[in-house]
UniProtKB/TrEMBL annotation:
InterPro entries: CARKD, Nnr, Ribokinase-like, YjeF_N_dom, YjeF_N_dom_sf. Its cofactor is K(+); Mg(2+). Catalyzes the dehydration of the S-form of NAD(P)HX at the expense of ADP, which is converted to AMP. Together with NAD(P)HX epimerase, which catalyzes the epimerization of the S- and R-forms, the enzyme allows the repair of both epimers of NAD(P)HX, a damaged form of NAD(P)H that is a result of enzymatic or heat-dependent hydration. Bifunctional enzyme that catalyzes the epimerization of the S- and R-forms of NAD(P)HX and the dehydration of the S-form of NAD(P)HX at the expense of ADP, which is converted to AMP. This allows the repair of both epimers of NAD(P)HX, a damaged form of NAD(P)H that is a result of enzymatic or heat-dependent hydration. The gene is nnrD. Residues 26-269 form the YjeF N-terminal domain. This is ADP-dependent (S)-NAD(P)H-hydrate dehydratase. Binds 1 potassium ion per subunit. Residues 274-582 form the YjeF C-terminal domain. It comes from Psychrobacter saeujeotis.
Length: 584
């Protein structure tokens, strides 16, 4: 459902970083609270009461918006209704109590139970005693008020799997309380079917979908959705602490707008990660400065393997975006077949033949930052170049960005137990080395399957850092950044950016920012680069607070770019815009 402006504004980007926690940590926070003598059922009642109030408010906002849009107002006030789907755990307990409080507030409610045998029994022997008792207490409290309910397993949707759209339970709001942070395996049987039915029924009737704590099917600690199946929420009411999984991998796509319901104070637990949504302010340039004040980026990539078309575009994109961040000088060491193309799209850059090894080494010595690997190629000749230039960059104490084919060669060096990996790891303890794989590249670096990386991206990025040293970005929806041992999640970016060359653009932003010594550590670090890149992508598809008019490069006509068709070459203009906004 399209959410009204008031709701999106409530959840709009704030510049304050938000701490993210995994399930284990949230359970620990709860336990610490109970250890102080607070009652767990009391907390559940508090949670449900606050969520019920929030749902009433959200529904009023949706209703007001719908009315103002309708040509002929229907002034008849109808009783609002909610269909609450509950599972057997405490998340289900929250659901029962929300139904109870909404009913008390005059709503018409209908509870659909899943995996619950009858009114007085939960059927999961694995559940802890206290968890069962809280969920059961909640259930009994709702049933004592004659809360209407039915078992999903008895419904037509479940009985006749092929006709699941036949019955759509009418309700204004669909509330998902099937699973919370306790989900630890793929929903099967009636649970699986319930998630499918919930989504299709809610979509069919256009209900507002509210997830309790986390959309069911989404794993709080990883952002993974088992078998692609989870509740598609418009709004997630996140209890106690913001869950890591809401913001990375599948999380962003299933959670909708996230609203915090903090409930209890806590301070002593180190978060699993920090969510970044906005860039740091950039200090304006000093009047009395020259190009040398803003660094020299050397881009090493854009090769042409004998007989192939080559990958000159990668180097062009990296250098264009480095320039867009304000780097003072750019030299591109690429195959000479691309020098003409490069200069016609970026006349500000200098070029050198990638294969003139001594000259490139000489340039490495004078550059401030070396970005290596974009379109470098994966053949033996490219491997020799990579090894030689990497050694030169280390020997000359350069800030390094390694991406794309450079990562492929690193993985090969690691497989060969080449001592350059040990050297790199040691070097990165005292120098800035940034490595920016996507999941496929991370899989190569760790010699694992891509699915193993995707199932636990946080663990993958930590493993990369342990083996190779350095600061890392694991790219994708909700990119992870591991810098100086701290994990961050980029809360900006969109699926339009899933297109060729976007990673090359990111390398250029990292290189361009790191080259600018007039910016302090807060302003020119890896996190800042990832966020600027993502905000630029969002700006182009009008998904950010940095919206600006975009113009067609050739015709000069105003453009309305959507996610489909966003191109990497659109990015440098947007990056310039974000840089300017952050400087204001
Ligand atoms: N009293 C408390 O501690 C509070 C808990 N709260 C709620 O409690 C939730 C966590 O409760 P729980 O720990 O009971 O977790 P869940 O409500 O997510 O349920 C976990 C139960 O489901 C089972 N399960 C996991 N995956 C399954 C699958 N695929 N198929 C079938 N069964 C599966 C588990 O074995 C476990 O028994 C939070 O998300 C939050 O909604 C809130 O009420 C705040 C207070
Ligand atoms: N769905 C998405 N949401 C947010 N950001 C995305 C999404 N898909 C891709 N991106 C971003 O776009 C960039 C793509 O990089 P990469 O896969 O390396 O592209 P390429 O190899 O073609 O240059 C990364 O920064 C990534 O985080």
């Amino acid at each position: 459902m399209q959410l009204p402006m008031q709701i999106t504004a409530q959840c709009s980007r704030s510049s304050l970083p938000i701490a993210l926690y995994n399930s284990k940590q949230v359970y620990a926070i709860e336990q610490a609270w109970f250890a102080q003598g607070y009652d767990s059922f009391g907390l559940m009642q508090q949670a449900a009461w606050q969520m019920a109030q929030r749902i009433i408010l959200l529904y009023q906002q949706v209703k007001t918006q719908a009315k103002s849009k309708a040509k002929h107002h229907n002034h008849k006030v109808s009783q609002p209704s909610a269909c609450v789907w509950v599972g057997q755990g405490n998340n289900g307990g929250d659901g029962w109590l929300i139904a109870h409080y909404l009913q008390q507030a005059g709503w018409q409610v209908q509870v659909i139970t899943v995996g619950i045998e009858n009114d007085n029994q939960t059927n999961d022997s694995q559940n802890s005693k206290s968890a069962i008792s809280d969920a059961l207490k909640a259930q009994r409290m709702a049933l004592d008020m004659s809360c209407p309910h039915q078992r999903f397993e008895d419904m037509h949707q479940y009985q006749n799997k092929n006709a699941r759209l036949d019955i759509a339970l009418q309700a204004d709001v669909y509330i998902d309380a099937l699973f919370g942070i306790g989900l630890d395996r793929a929903p099967a049987n009636s649970y699986k079917q319930a998630i499918v039915s919930f989504n299709s029924a809610a979509q069919q009737i256009g209900a507002l979908v509210v997830a309790v704590d986390i959309p069911s099917g989404l794993v709080a600690s990883t952002g993974q959705v088992f078998e692609g199946l989870a509740i598609q929420a418009d709004i997630t009411l996140c209890l106690i602490a913001r869950k890591f999984g809401l913001h990375t991998k599948d999380g962003m796509g299933f959670s909708g707008k996230v609203i915090d319901i903090p409930l209890i104070p806590f301070a002593s637990i180190e978060p699993a990660a920090i969510l970044l949504k906005d860039g740091q302010h950039l200090t304006p340039r000093c009047q009395n400065s020259y190009k040398g004040s803003y660094g020299h980026v050397l881009v090493v990539g854009g090769n042409r393997i004998d007989g192939s078309q080559g990958m000159g575009g990668a180097a062009i994109l990296t250098s264009s975006s480095a320039m867009a961040t304000g780097a003072g000088k750019i030299t591109v060491a690429c195959h000479q077949a691309f020098h003409g193309a490069l200069l016609s799209s970026l006349p500000d850059a200098m070029t050198i033949d990638l294969h003139e090894q001594e000259s490139v080494e000489h340039l490495i010595k004078s550059a401030s930052v070396v970005a290596i690997g974009m379109g470098l190629g994966r053949d033996e000749k490219a491997k020799i170049l990579f090894t030689r230039y990497l050694k030169a960059a280390i020997a000359h104490n350069k800030t390094l960005i390694i991406d794309a084919d450079g990562l492929y060669h690193l993985a090969a060096l690691q497989r060969d137990k080449n001592e350059l990996i040990t050297q790199l790891r040691e070097y990165s303890k005292t120098h800035n080395v940034c490595l920016t794989p996507h999941s496929g590249e991370a899989a190569k670096l760790l010699d694992k399957k891509i699915s193993a990386i995707e199932n636990d991206r946080s663990s993958a990025i930590h493993q990369c850092a342990n083996i190779y040293g350095g600061n890392w970005v694991l790219k994708g929806a909700g990119s992870l950044i591991l810098a100086q041992g701290q994990l961050y999640v980029c809360g900006a970016g969109n699926a339009g950016m899933a297109t060729a060359g976007m990673g090359d653009i990111l390398s250029g932003v990292v290189a361009g920012l790191l080259a600018q010594q007039d910016l302090n550590d807060e302003q020119n670090n890896l996190c800042q680069a990832v966020v600027i890149h993502a905000l630029a992508g969002d700006m182009l598809v009008r998904q950010s607070s940095y919206d600006a008019t975009t113009y067609d490069r050739i015709s000069g006509n105003q453009l309305l770019i959507g996610q489909r068709g966003l191109q990497a070459q659109d990015m440098p203009a947007a990056i310039r815009h974000i840089m300017q906004k952050l400087t204001c």
